[in-house]
Write a structure and sequence with these properties.
The protein is of the alpha/beta class and about 350 residues long. It has helices at about 1-25, 50-65, 85-95, 115-120, 125-135, 135-145, 185-190, 200-210, 220-225, 250-255, 260-295, 305-315, 320-325, 330-350; strands at about 40-45, 70-75, 100, 150-155, 160-165, 180, 195-200, 215-220, 235-240, 245-250, 300. α7 (about 185-190) links the parallel β6 (about 180) and β7.
Length: about 350
């Protein structure tokens, strides 16, 4: 009898203990600290979906994907906050976090990097993107002096085209006597072709053509389409050649503030973007030109036999004066451009994609 009481007592205690455990309030799990979202602002003077804007949009999506939403880059389009010629200064000053400025627009400030633009007049589409990535180290040092970090890749202003409201341009001599708008050092190219180069922002081109202030404009075909130049000019000439690079930059202080793992993602995605941007730039160009040819009253593509008339006239129109002013550093950079350009041509001759980056 005594044993039964002991067993009963023990069982009761076990049951009571179990009830206490089950009914006890459960401790809340320790909340994990969520890393704050890193928000960056990109100034882009292009419109949404434009060929160059699409390249930047792809990069932003890849960054958000690889950081699992930790980094969100917002693009401000169509010069809403920064005009195209001011994009470089905006990145340097930190007014915006990122941009891909047209180097030709700020050639006065970036004299050595602007030599990339001259080479575009006689290269092939996409070459400027290869060369820019191959020259990442010297370009990085130049941009960092101003306060910008170069990510080693960019997009490309498409090969140049001419729209004119007085005549169809087939040879450089057809530019003689014409006032032709161009951006940055493009003014020098027009002068080299015998015309009078006029510097005007994109926003003023349409009205200037409409009112006869200028006779024509030198533009990338993508910009020609965006501005609907066929409405104020009848003649379109496409000059096959290379494009002008738009290096992707981030404010240096902003870059230095990023966590190391985020920087690593930026570096990895940037390396994949260089060949991606190259292939895309080449793929969409033919479609853009073909579409423009249907919109103008008369269109003309410079044939291979006449292309040298345009390219030869522009060889030396900028780099020589830059070397005269800045000496050995400029000459060294120009030699590196020529070496990389030769490698691009050799790779294409073998049916290969040119090599990106030096490391």
């Amino acid at each position: 009898m005594k044993t039964k009481k002991v067993v009963f007592t023990l069982l009761s205690m076990v049951v009571l203990l179990g009830l206490l455990i089950c009914c006890a309030p459960k401790a809340e799990p320790t909340p994990q600290t969520k890393e704050p979202t890193i928000k960056l602002l990109w100034a882009c003077y292009r419109t949404p979906g434009d060929p160059r804007a699409a390249v930047y949009e792809h990069f932003c999506s890849r960054i958000e994907e690889e950081t699992k939403g930790r980094v969100k880059i917002t693009i401000s389009y169509a010069e809403q906050i920064i005009k195209a010629p001011q994009e470089y200064d905006a990145v340097v000053s930190g007014t915006v976090d990122m941009a891909a400025p047209v180097v030709a627009y700020v050639a006065g400030r970036l004299q050595i990097p602007a030599m990339l633009c001259e080479a575009g007049y006689w290269q092939e589409p996409g070459d400027s993107l290869v060369i820019m990535s191959r020259l990442r180290e010297p370009l990085s040092r130049m941009f960092e002096k101003d306060g910008a970090k170069f990510l080693g890749w960019g997009a490309e202003v498409a090969p140049q085209s001419l729209a004119c409201n007085t005549r169809l341009i087939k040879l450089p001599s057809d530019c003689k006597g014409l006032k032709i708008r161009a951006g940055g050092i493009g003014v020098l190219a027009i002068n080299a072709w015998g015309g009078t180069g006029v510097a005007l922002p994109n926003s003023e081109i349409y009205m200037a053509l409409q009112t006869g202030v200028i006779d024509g404009t030198l533009l990338g075909p993508d910009t020609m389409g965006e501005l609907r130049i066929w409405e104020v000019a009848e003649y379109f000439t496409y000059i096959p050649g290379g494009g002008i690079p738009t290096p992707v930059l981030i404010n240096l202080k902003k870059w230095e503030s990023l966590p190391d793992d985020v920087k690593q993602v930026f570096e990895e995605v940037s390396r994949e973007m260089a060949p991606w941007s190259y292939e895309r730039s080449r793929a969409v160009l033919a479609d853009i030109v073909a579409d423009l040819e249907t919109k103008f009253k008369e269109s003309y593509t410079i044939p291979e036999k006449d292309r040298d008339h345009f390219s030869e006239a522009t060889k030396g129109f900028y780099w020589k004066s830059t070397v005269d002013r800045l000496g050995a550093p400029a000459q060294e950079f120009w030699n590196a451009i020529l070496s990389a350009a030769d490698e691009c041509a050799a790779a294409r001759a073998r049916g290969e994609t040119p090599r990106f980056f030096e490391d």
